[in-house]
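quick one
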Amino acid sequence: MDISHVDKICKDHGNRQDQLIGILQDVQAQYRYLPQKPLERVSELLGIPIAQVFSVATFFRAFSLEPRGKNVCQVCMGTACHVRGAQRLLEEIERGFGIVAGQTTKDANVTLETVNCVGACALGPVIVVNEEYHGRMDGTKTAKLIEDLKTKGE
Ligand code: FES
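structure w/ FE2/S2 (inorganic) cluster:
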C-alpha cells in the first residue's frame, strides 16, 4: 500500500494535531476507508498516540476501518425517515444486493450502511448514494437506484 499520500495530507493540514479529524477525512477520501498503515503514519507525523487516532476513527460513524465499496449507499433510519418506510426500503436494497447493512458486495461495488438523520427530514425517506441525496424514496425509485448501482459495477 502506497502511504505517501498521507505525508502530503498531513502537510496540507500543517501537521497539526488539532487537524486530526480533517486529516482522517482526507485519508479516507484517498483510500475509501482508514487502513491501519496510513493511520500509523498519521500517528507518527502528528506525534499522537496510535490509540488516540483509533479512538477518533472509531468514534465518528463517518469513518470506516473496513474496506468500503466503490459506491456507498446509506439509508437514513432516523425517526422521520423510519416512519415513512425506510425499513422497507433498506430490506429491498439488502435483497437487491444480497447483503445486509454494514456489508460490502463481493465485487466491492457497493457498501450498504444505515445512518441516523442526514438533516433532510422533509424529504424522507432519504437514501444517500456517494453523498448525493435521493429524497422521497419509494419502492419504485429504490428499485431503479439498485439497478443503477448494479450497472456501475459492471
Ligand atoms: S430522519 Fe432521515 S433525514 Fe432526518
